[in-house]
Amino acid sequence: MSTRLTSATKSQPPRCSSSDRMDAAIQELRRGTRLADLLREQVELIPELERRHAAVANVGEISTAMESSLSLLQSEMEHSSSPEVGAVAMAAPAAYSSDGGTGERNGAVARTRRVRHRRGKHGAELPIKEILTEAPKNDRFHWRKYGEKNILNAEHPRLYYKCGYSDDHKCPAKKYVQQQSNSSPTPVFMVTLINEHTCETLFPDEASSSSISAASHVLDFTKASLSPPVMAAAPGLKKKEEEDSMSAVSMRSYPYDEYLSSSLPTMSPDGDQVKFSPGHGW
DNA sequence: TGTATTTGACCTGA
DNA sequence: TCAGGTCAAATACA
Fold first, then answer.
1. Is strand C in 7 Å reach of the CB of A149?
2. DSSP letters along A148-200, please?
3. Strand B nucleotides within 7 Å of a protein CB
4. By percentage, how much of chain A surpasses pLDDT 90?
């Protein structure tokens, strides 16, 4: 079954205008929905009741996520998005920084007062996407974690990432990841994207990654859901992972490429992604 | 040794 | 004053 599922990830949407990409993303989401249905049928054949139940539940969540993403994209298409980005603009959850991450890192002394230009509340025009995902995947961008914060009334801390090229290429892309309160056995993460990547530095993994790895990814996606995906994610995690699974996921940056181009089979069964050399790393 | 993460302090808007 | 977002030294790891 895995091979069939993989086909969902094979078609590469054209990368042209944002509307083209959104269109492609919609197509992929539709396809994903159909495949999720297919997967459900297959999963129902699992003899072990417990596993079957869990798998069916997970597939159901996949479908839900697909459908909600789909409707978001569609409504965005209808409401004519901003020309520059194919963002799924949603209600801005909070304040978004407009700090360009220009990386003024020469402050010799720590904690000395620096004039930092940030928090442009007026920056409401910033592209924003929010994605609910339960299955972290690699989006091929290089994210670097730069902060973590406990949020009021939230069970889990919010993790802050910026593009790994924010300094080099002045790429303003950022994302916030927050695990939702665990109402379901499977952790669900709200991923908020801020700004579009200007670095355009995607990892060239699709050329080398085989459909096999894609298949295993898809399969393991289910497996990983049975056991928390967070734990599967972090070979690079060292100390806090055992107690803080949230951080574990975070180290890999949470990917959710649904909106992007869809086919990023980069997470191995262990949750370990493709290794990248420094500077291109993840 | 270089790179990425952790973590507490700092900053800013509400 | 509070809460959220960011910085950057310290630290861990490959």
1. yes
2. EEPPTT-SS-EEEEEETTTTTT----EEEEEEPP-SSSS--EEEEEES--SS-
3. 2-14
4. 2
